[in-house]
């Protein structure tokens, strides 16, 4: 007992943050199995693993995924990374102050605080510890100006007190605005997805100079501030892969050949996901594909303009989200799940009828290549995806048992993204699987989960007597080295008790080691399910368990 009762705040029970969760045994065995299968299958397709960091410059995601998307606009966990804690709290203090013009002390202490901020802030800028961005330079100038004007205005009541107050308020809002735009450090975000990171890494490590294409895969947590529900979390896991290929200067010489080559890459990537799902025995897998045209060609632009004008005609019948999207991204209206919008969307023009010749050729080739590989698909002209970087091929895969969040994988082609991020002209295609949803679906289909989560044989060592203990330690070492799961109790137990505990832990076997067994040099193995007993010498026992 501690002397004083814990204070209320010390008694607080911590819980995982909303939308995050602990993955626990035995479920983690299934997670490991899924990840091991990914490593194995992706390796057979020639992919190598990349592990990018979980946070990056916010600007990277804004540029890659798109500033108007839900992901960047609403769902990122963003923070400023700096060493200026005191300066940052001084900025908030100043922001929330309202100096009283009729109280000279209030005004002068306000101005003093601005000067204190300016001193430390200019020093940080001079030492390059605070980024010298145009916004920061401008804010510095403005703050200096306000700090000079405020004391003068506060003492000048020539137009009357109300007039003086209004002029002071204008200055104060200028101070607030300057403080609002100041960035004390880099603005970073937890990654909402990893394609942008992989492209950044491709550029940073000059991967265009390595053999092309570069085929990379990743497994890890992503973060999106979405409304949590079954299959939708704020920290979730993706298993993803990307193929990046430097565009050769002569690539346009044989355009038809290039289009077929791209289609083959698309089909191979899709085949790889399907092989992975097949290996895991994922139930009810359905692949949907589409082509959303090419931004640089007229087909996408022409179609989006047509879509927009058709949507304007039915605007009044659409919900608020879709109405907004007519302006920001008409394409995304096709994504709507709202029931009353479905009949309206069904009558909208379809992109397949508006693709340019190159996009049509490429899309036809993707379908042909999928058929050649025996990959079944359905076409869905409304599959536009929620990220801005896609062009031509898009695809999504759904699985059984997931309710409304049934997309277990999404992907597509994104030629030009690397260039948009400051790299050389590069083609790209990839996908990401929602690992949480994949696991949920496997767990719903119990057989698949059982097969997937297969464990090594589990032996409980029931030992009794000092000699038996030494033999038990020795046996545990050998069995574990052979890949057997072993539980070695740290205290001697009567055999009855030991068997009871072995069953409780879920062991399949009990290895019985008493002094007699040790003297004889034979070990007794009891199968807990039926009570059958067999005697083995050590090598024979290892052989027997290995065969399991
Ligand atoms: P995405 O469609 O945003 O694409 O996400 C891919 C998959 O991640 C989804 O199909 C879903 O299974 C899973 N997922 C997304 N958000 C959540 C969430 N909040 N909770 C649980 N699972 C979720 C991308 O992320 C692209 N980077 C895919 C890609 C790679 N395209 C080309 N290369």
Broad structural category: alpha+beta
Measured distance between first and last alpha carbons: 50 Å
Q: What is the number of E strands?
A: 16
Strand arrangement within the widest β-sheet reads 1-5-6-11-10-9-7-8
Classify the beta-strand content into a percent band.
15-25%
Radius of gyration: 32 Å
pLDDT < 50 stretches = none
Name the bound molecules: histidyl-adenosine monophosphate
Shape label: globular
Mean pLDDT: 92
Task: List the total number of helices.
Answer: 20
Quaternary structure classification: single chain
Largest sheet: 8 strands, mixed
Determine the fraction of residues in helical runs and give it as a percent range. 40-55%
Short description:
The protein has helices spanning 27-44, 58-65, 70-74, 85-96, 104-126, 134-154, 161-181, 195-204, 255-280, 298-314, 320-328, 342-346, 357-372, 417-420, 435-444, 446-452, 466-481, 495-505, 515-520, 538-547, and strands at 48-49, 55-57, 78-81, 186-190, 214-223, 235-246, 286-291, 378-379, 391-398, 407-413, 426-434, 458-463, 485-487, 509-513, 523-527, 533-536. The chain has 548 residues and is α+β, with helices and mostly antiparallel strands.
